[in-house]
Specification:
heterodimer; A: alpha/beta; Rossmann fold; B: about 500 residues; mainly alpha; two-stranded antiparallel ribbon; 20 helices
Chain lengths: ~450, ~500
Amino acid sequence: MYPAPAVKIFIIGAGQVGSTIVEALHGEHNLTVIDLDPARLTPLAYRYDIATIEANGASRRALADAGVRDADLVIACTSRDEANLVAATFARIEAPRATTVIRTSNVEYIELWREGRLDVDFVVSSEIETAHAITRVIGVPAALQTDVFADGQVQMVEYEVTELSNPDVLGKPLRQCDLVPRDSRVVSKIRGETMTIPNGATVINAGDRLVVVGSPEAAQAWGELLSPGEGVVEDVVVFGGGQVGVAIARQLLEQCIGVRLIEPDRERARRIAEELPDARVYQATGLDPDFLERERIGQAQAAVFAMREDSKNHYAATLARVHGVTFTIAIVHDPIAREVYEHSGVDVTVNPRQVTAEEIVRFAHDPRTQQVAMVEGDRFEVLDLTTSPTSGYVGLRFRDMPIRGAVIGAIVRDGKAVFPHSDDVLQAGDRVIVFTESSRVADVERVL
Amino acid sequence: MGIDARGTVGLVGVLSRYLALSALVPIAVALYYDESIWPFVGAGLGLAAFGTVLRLWGGDISHVGAREGFLVVALVWLVAAVYAALPYLLSGDPQLAGPADALFEGMSGFTTTGATVLTDIEALPQSLLMWRQFTQWLGGMGIIVLALAVLPRLRVGGRQLLESELPGPEVDQLATRIREATTRFSALYLALTALEAGILGILGWTGIDPEMDTFNAIAHAFTTIPTGGFSPQNRSIEPFAPVTQWVILVFMIAGGVNFALLFQVFVRRRLRVVLRDEELRAYGFALLAAAAILTAEIWTKRPEIGEEAIRVGFFQAASILTTTGYATVDFALWPTLALVTLVGLMFVGASAGSTSGSVKVLRHVLMAKILGRELRQTVHPELVAPIRLNRVVVDERTLRAVMSFVLLYIGIFVAGTLVITIDAAYNGPTVTPFEAIGVVAATLGNVGPAVGFAGPFGSYAPFSDVSTVALTTLMWIGRIEVIPVVVLLTRSYWRS
């Protein structure tokens, strides 16, 4: 058995990002949460087995008193960039060996960090991570969620099965479906609250959600199968030219996807137009039906709502749907708003704080684990980890492996992705892409 | 008092005294050819004395800034034209005996226009011929300083786009800027002139072109890079061999390139950056398109065919586009399409940082972009579309300045045409509407030769003194880019 290394983690800031990190990590690691506001600490302290300290994380003495010198990992994730930077700097003085991660939206900090001139180990930006999450979804239009591993060789996608899906895959056991793409594996079937790990006998029905791991082509083929006719995206409308909206537009343009951006503020619209020469920028609210008609917004293949207020995003998304936009993605700031969005037909919601937390959580995992994605909120995780030579699973054929709430979707062997069949054998040093429930992450890391 | 008048006068005095030194060149020529030196001695001493008086009467020049710049620019070109005219008057040559005619010839020299009131150019003494050429060379140097250092500071007509051509911190002192630009660009200007003179000289000495001699080599080198167009020959470039014409053509095209880009090519050796310049590309395109039309027209409708048709087409297209005004044939005799093309080219001009006149390619490029955006915004009213030049956003103020320039240019062109036609109606000579349009476009655009009797081998002599003065004024206004003159007519310029 491989012992999961217990890591001492300091989390500075108990807001949405901090709480999400606590939620994801509390089972496996020793967590200490520091925040100035007792109202935010108390609920965390009641729910989880963690230490909470009411103090200013940007004070060197407070950090020292809290015992930061024993920390292995310090995460500064308050909503204030400067406080995060100061906290990480002080933590570096107190605990030189600890890994430091800061959350920031300040472009200047990110650039300095890339140049190696900021004394923190990792910088995570809500805007950039949110934009990543959204561009990944837009790249595969039918997906509820998607992520890539192993330099893009392996893609994980969550699809919704509907009545429109290809009848060949509906209502019969998977092994009888002829059209199922090779180089892919259905790692999970989710229906409501229940999750089953599929095998050849599993039957897919409308209303199920499938998590597929496969090559990017296979993932695309699954999209065609489950949501026919969505094709490739060339025209995306982004509502809201704030930092998030601009980051989204920039990443879409980098993928050669055409972007139209709508920003109500005159000066801001002008600045964006100067910054992004390839985007078409409109100075408009996006809430004016005449404008939506005149600019044929309804013909866009996707619309992203990245305005500051949830209610505005909600209204604009609904209006856009009325005008014929079929695929809508909305930023949600308040976690409660997510339900409202989804109820009113927004296809995908992205919570910047959650995305940021996910990114930060990656640093807390076993060092063998390279990348983590969360599915269905934080119910499931997809891990990318390297098998240890002492693992009991090494040398087993896939058909002989016991199934305990985790599935290996793909292997990266000698830098190449392999999508295993039942006769393949797991080897020591293979990188595996594993789908599992969040509560089992530590177990999976231990046995592999 | 709104502006620093004493400082302005002082600066004009300083510049006049420097300019007076230029009389030494024609004096040397006169001594060599054993001709009278007194017209030049008189002009030089006169300007030196005038400059000294202004300098003494004027005040401290260190506070002369952008606001006074308009007046300085306007006055300097006026003073220079008068100075250039003095030797013509003092020489007593019958063709230039009238003060209006002499001033016209002087202004045509210093504005590098190339229009002439002479009917028999070759009748002039060598020293006076070389003086004509030399005034264009001096004017060209002045225009480079004007275009790259002074006008960008005054932010007129979209000139602020060339603001970055001078390095270092933004100096508000006009005197300092003039000195900086002169030291930066004069060596290259001199080198290009010497290179052309050398090549033309070699063509002459080796006997490849029997018509070319040392005098002609220097004389034409003096008026090619400044896109001037004066020639000591009655029939311009026509007598010279085809190879000479090709050489002059190349230097004429170079003279139409933004001088800051030439500086990049020859001094910094950054050819690739330069070739991506949008204005340069548009200039090249305009040249090729015009040359193609003219060549096709000549090949089919005129006796010239083959290499000759191409050479004639290219030479005339480049000559008018760069506002030089040389000619290898009497294009005044050409068919309508070719003539209209030439007059159209008079409104184009070459690059903004060159010695050429007229509207200039840069402004045409920006106007096209403005109109394109206007059309797109008609369909998409909410579209925000910044205009870029060489990938850099051009601010809206600059674009407005470009539009105002073009409108003013058109307005003055119309007004000038009216003045010429009214005067011609009462004082003669008989001008056709096309001739009236041609002479106004050719003087306002600093091209030189027009159509009809004022064609390349013709003369502006038939015009009355009123028209001559009006055309002289147009050359002056066109040269200093309209706005510095117009702004002087506004009340707010003189008020604080």
